[in-house]
Fold this sequence. Notes:
- The protein has helices at residues 12-24, 34-39, 52-55, 57-66, 78-81, 91-102, 127-145, 173-178, 181-193, 211-229, 251-263, 284-303, 326-329, 351-362, and strands spanning 44-49, 69-72, 106-114, 151-156, 198-203, 236-239, 242-243, 268-275, 308-313.
- By secondary structure, the chain is an alpha/beta fold.
- α7 (127-145) runs parallel beside α9 (181-193).
- The protein is globular and about 60 Å long.
- The model is unreliable at 1-23 (pLDDT under 50).
- It binds (3S,4R)-3-hydroxy-2-oxopiperidin-4-yl beta-D-xylopyranoside.
Amino acid sequence: MHVPRKGSGPDRRQVLAGLGALSAMPARAQPLPLWAAAASRGLVFGASSSWEVIRDPDYAALHARESRLMVTDKAMKFDFLRPRADVYDFAEADALLAFAREHGMAFRGHTLIWNYAPPPWLAGKSSAEIERIFDDHLETVAGRYAGAMESWDVVNEPFWPDHGAPGGFRRGPWFDAMGEGYIERAFRRVATIDRSATLVLNEAFCEQNDRLGIAVRARMLPLIDRLLDRGVKLDAIGLQAHLKPGLPFEIDAFLRFLDEIAARGLPIYLSEFDIDDESFPRESAKRDALVAEWGARFLGPVLANRAVRAIITWHLSDKYTWYREPQVARRRQRDFAARPLPFDDRMAAKPLRSAMAEAFRAAPAR
Ligand code: XIL
């Protein structure tokens, strides 16, 4: 602020400039950052990103202000880290880790093992070769970041019943070579390499009450029990929570599922939260209001369960939502740009942001 020299009153130009600065100030104090609202109840709030947070200063500022946990969107997926058999490309993961450190954020890796989207160079390899590549990948990647990770999604999306495999497992190189045992093998191996990270089994669809969601929930609990019974170091369950209001939804069924996980002593991460607005009216204001309403409807009862420890949005601004990526948008029924996140294209807060902050405040302390 301009301080006039003693004895000389401010001139008219200075007064006007001062008034201008005043009117540009927000009428109310800035709301608590989402991470702080969450932390007041012992919850962690974080968000994912790829290169966008490194390249877009406005997005960087938004993450730095609102989040305390950086999650890799693409950087640590097998096909990104391993464009060719003999290449490990850590550039993006390293940049995101540096960003997290610079801004006092914890760092979460997604995902070591996933049967989805294997790189073409894996095709045609023998089971023995696949096992060797699997072990080498875990040693190299978990080893490189050991000590730096808050958590790892060790295995992502174990189930996809429509593949028809016994047990409803998702097929892909790891399952096809090792069967269900790939899951235990991954957890056991990572537990010996990284002794500080929380080791997470992450799954999608569980909040849906359609055929897929019901089947996956029913498969998850016995899998968790088998791993725990066998003494595997499974530290937490990640539930993606890509909400799809167009699909059947039954909050009580999901809450019972959370209770079952909590009864096994496992913390829960809502690991990829966003709200698909595809089934909502086109007008942005209406869509934003409905997205917020769904956020409140979901988070209120879900955060009442003290086993839920972290909530992570899949990106933070609509500008970078995966639902707008050409290959994802192409499969959508509607031609409008998705608005599934708490901040809009210009990094401004949307009604979902207030709904989230309110749900955090209303949650019981952990
Ligand atoms: C998405 C990425 O955000 C996209 O960039 C990519 O095109 C497809 O995958 N469940 C997951 C995430 O576990 O890895 C997915 O991320 C979203 C669904």
